[in-house]
Amino acid sequence: MSTLLDLLRGSSALYGGNAAFIEDLYERYLLDPDSIDPAWRVRFDQWRQRVTPGTRTVETPHTPIRERFRQLAETTPTQAARSTPRCLDPVAAEKQAAVLSLINAYRYRGHQIADIDPIRLREVPHVADLDLAYHHLLPADLDQVFHTGSLYAPDRLTLREILDIVQETYGGTVGSEYMHITSTQEKRWIQKRLEGYRARPELDSEGRRWLLTLLTAAEGLEKYLHQRYVGQKRFSLEGGEALIPLLDELVQRAGRRGMQEIVIGMAHRGRLNVLTNIFGKPPADIFDEFEGRVQLDWRQMVGDVKYHMGFATDVATPGGIVHLVLGFNPSHLEIINPVVEGSVRARQRRRGDRSGDQVLPVLIHGDAAFAGQGVVMETLQLSQTRSYGTGGTVHIVINNQIGFTTSHPLDARSTPYCTDVAKMVQAPVFHVNGDDPEAVIFVTRLALDFRNQFHKDVIIDLMCYRRLGHNEADEPAVTQPLMYQKIREHPTPRAIYAERLLMHGLITPEDEQALITAYRQALEQGVVIARAVLCGLDTSRRVDWRFCRGQSWDQDIDTGVPLDTLRTLSTALLRLPEGFVLHPRVEKVWEERQKMAQGEQLLNWGYAENLAYATLLAEGIPVRLSGQDVGRGTFVHRHAKLYDQVTGAAYTPLQHLSEQQGAFIAIDSILSEEAVLGYEYGFATAEPHALTLWEAQFGDFANGAQVVIDQFISSAGTKWGLHCGLVMLLPHGLEGQGAEHSSARLERFLQLCAGHNMQVCVPTTPAQLFHLLRRQMVRPYRTPLIVMTPKSLLRHRLAVSALDELTQGQYQVIIPESDPIDPAEVERVVLCSGKVYYDLLEARRARGRNQVALLRIEQLYPFPKAAFVQALEPYAHVEEIVWCQEEPQNQGAWDQIKHRLQRLLPAGKRAYYVGRPASAAPAVGHRAAHVEQHERLIEAALGGAPNSNPNLRIPSP
Which intervals hold domain Transketolase-like pyrimidine-binding (predicted)? Predict the structure, then answer.
């Protein structure tokens, strides 16, 4: 690289009057680099530094540079300088600066005048910054020669030539937004690619004919389906057919760059087209779905509509086989985004792909959804974080400029473009006219290469239109008459491109018709028609869940761990780096854990949980725990991460058990529930042999991720046959702290339970949590596990376990009476779950009511029928059987399990409810009211007669 002194010695551009101008710029640069034109700032940044191979960069001193400026001011211009029409006197220098400013204006604002709307729906604004007059340039200047600055072009051109370049690059069918990026390196890279190629791809005649073939396929499928299945929903791609060549180019180029897998998430629009023409799903299978000929065991699966279904395939590329995955997606549009990202992260981890060079996430959005759905922002916010980044995502917006039924763009969003939200992560945005497939190919290459170069997200805004309604039964002209008048008159992208190739003599009319005929015949034959698709999926490339087939939740699996192993792991867990300074509160915790490890003190919740992770890690099972503040735990109980109070350095003991252990990570996530839970769900679906956990800071925070729970966690197994072993830890319990953060909404999870789709457990001891977490991985059975975890019980004197309770046994789905009470003397059996058990236990002991037996149901779903019947056998003579809960009657477990209880009770017996009355809120807002309610509840459960307390109704089921 030349130094600035070298430049001053050898560049004719800096002689004479120009030297004074440059010196002035340089002085301003030294005072404030941001005060000068960015193009000059870049040059000064580069020229000030001398780089010698194998040595460090050395900055050029300022004094020799200034001295050289003074010498140049007296020097006669060289022949090169004389080639400029006039010497750069102050007026000419201003003109030169104006030209550079004009170039920069096109980089910033050229996208506003770009020809990116195929149906010319939007009015092209007048952008004053792009006028010559704005920069004090005149038509007479057009034939003057100027320095091009940082423009990727010859060093000197006439202003007319410069205008041609910037207008072609920034005002053509590609509108580029990238000047909001703060990284000079990234901006210069994009400028080189845009300006060096004038935003056009290098395509030979064969490449252009293939492009027409793909457009013919995209259009041909839609026309065929429209004729064969009149009025049926398919969410046509018509108007946006350029998506197919875009994806084809993306897959082939990614394979050429060494990618092994691509995971794609998309909503409905164009999904069937992508499945057929990119993934190679046999058309015959799609026709069967239209005609209802689907082989499905309805007892095991309910299935889903055809435009929600996922698919996987292998595709041959110049660089090798690429495994393609299309994620299953519900109607909640953008919710697939974090799920795909989590799946990609798991696949990258399995391949050891730390930089994202082998597995690529691709997300295909709708314009209205990208602008309107909050999960888009949340997922973008994850993209550059250490534990959620996937090396950058290629985003493709199918921008049909209408969204769903929006009647006016002003009602669709508050930003000029639907993609503006992506600027918050400084992602470049490339708007491209969907009627110019060659420009689409150029942008695809540019976007993928940017992603691979900088490992950041990039946006392709495919500007197109929607030829039909939101679905094929919709009539969009009802609300968009002018738009659809234009669309009806507008030729298709295939027709436009075919005419272009005909004009250039690259095809004949017979060639064009032959492509159309050949594609239709292939459709009618029902065979695979996507190029390079390899029939017979290589099972080594897919996520293998076969070990779960035929397994059930009620297997007897010993989850105990030998005492010697526990002690060895405890030693490693409690070992700290030399000189590591704990916070005084944490130091006390560490002292207590030392005693627990030696059996001198009973285990509390936090240490039993850490031991559960340690035992799994020692068996080679990775553990991934995420959520807000999970490292230490919201309630400062976990301490999986420690922080040196002197240096601030973090230390995670669970990562230092042994050299052969599984990987452990505890991620203090961003303040997001929807995206983070979706991400962890996606990770868990793609990594069956890792324990993946998400913890809500408070149980009710899961409300913010209800779509993930409803559409994926609870139902993906029965809709799509997907397996998942995700664990949700939800702090739950009425502690008198008000309606917020009291309830994890246990009732909602139980309402979603059916067909053994989830496990809902409420462990009440540290040993129970230990065995429950181990059971999730040791047992060859995976379904999501919902755990109602405690708050006050984390430090409750009775909620403790002996070390030897971890050495044998398994998770107890029901815990029988634990006090030495004679069953023959029992007059009432109280069934309960969770924290209320300890309230009942302490009150019973204090009041001496040993005629009441307490049974804990620790697994509410799948309901443990056999264990429940067995637990009640000693109390066959008891008439009063009560269900007690602290939640209001219409919440908690009662309404969801009372029918199960009743079916399992002996004939003639009935279970009664004891608890708070129904309420619209989870809890009262005042501590005094909470305490009063709770005392009444406990008294009614232990001794009150059924229906004796009007505030604690006890209805029969």
Answer: 603-796
**Do 354 and 386 share a domain, yes or no?**
yes
- How many CB atoms lie under 10 A from the CB of residue 700? 19
Residues 794, 826: one domain? no
- What is the pLDDT averaged over residues 792-807? 95
Q: What is the pLDDT of residue 31?
A: 56
The Cα 683–Cα 952 span in angstroms is 44
In this structure, the answer to whether residues 510 and 568 fall within a common structural domain is no
Give the pLDDT score at 284. Answer: 84
Q: Does residue 178 lie in a domain region?
A: no
**Other residues' Cβ atoms within 10 Å of the Cβ of residue 584:** 8
Residues 513-526 pLDDT 10s: 999 999 999 998 88
Element (H, E) at 463: strand 458-463
Separation of first and last alpha carbons in the chain: 84
Minimal CA–CA distance to 842: which of 831, 833, 851, 854?
854
Question: Which residues neighbour 649 within 8 Å (Cβ) at sequence distance 6 or greater?
Answer: 580, 643
Provide the β-strand partners of residue 914. Answer: 884
Cβ atoms within 10 Å, residue 785:
21
Model confidence at 8: pLDDT above 50: no
Q: Is residue 486 part of a domain?
A: yes
Backbone angles phi, psi at 324, to 5 degrees: -105, 135
The pTM of the whole model exceeds 0.85: yes
Place of tokens 């204006």: 105
Helix, strand and coil in the chain, % to nearest 5: 45, 15, 40
Q: Which of 564, 586, 574, 576 is closest to 610 using CA atoms?
A: 574
Average pLDDT, the chain: 88
For residue 862, is the peptide bond before it cis, meaning its omega torsion is within 30 degrees of 0? yes
**Is the domain of 570 the same as that of 640?**
yes
Contact 747, 895 (CB under 8 A): yes
